[in-house]
Specification:
Elements (H helix, E strand, L loop, with lengths): L5 H31 L13 H23 L3 H14 L6 H4 L7 H28 L5
Helix pairs in contact: 1-2, 1-5, 2-3, 3-5
């Protein structure tokens, strides 16, 4: 297998903003649905408010923005780590199914959960590719 060419790296890096926007949008869709239909989601904590949900989304998105800025600047490794954490957090929507089975959720609830998970998986897979391409080649 030949090492990646510089052009390959730039194409991979160019895809990253689009995947980040896709994940941020699906995440916002899921969080907004959560906030709007909070009482309808099965077995969520009663203390949770719509404001808490939106604040959580903002905090998570800031993590992604910080990771992207670090990645684009001189701290690629640190940026990739933060972006991987950001992407992995996208799988936390599956925790809804630990509180109640899939059948207890509406079709739209399931759609927003799985859309966020899919976007997170695509982003994480791409970050893994970028990380492997960034890794030093063994002699």
């Amino acid at each position: 297998m030949s090492p990646p060419r510089e052009g390959d790296r730039s194409v991979s890096a160019a895809v990253l903003p689009g995947l980040l926007l896709f994940y941020a949008a699906t995440s916002l869709l899921h969080f907004a649905h959560n906030a709007h239909y909070l009482p309808d989601y099965p077995n969520l904590p009663p203390w949770l408010s719509p404001a808490d949900v939106y604040i959580s989304w903002c905090a998570l998105t800031l993590l992604g923005i910080a990771g992207f800025i670090l990645y684009r600047r001189a701290h690629r490794g640190s940026g990739l780590v933060l972006l991987c954490i950001y992407a992995l957090i996208g799988f936390d929507g599956l925790l809804h199914y630990g509180r109640a089975p899939m059948a207890a959720h509406t079709a739209m609830m399931n759609f927003t959960i799985w859309a966020e998970v899919l976007a997170a998986a695509l982003l994480f897979a791409h970050l893994c590719v970028l990380g492997v391409r960034r890794a030093p080649v063994a002699p």
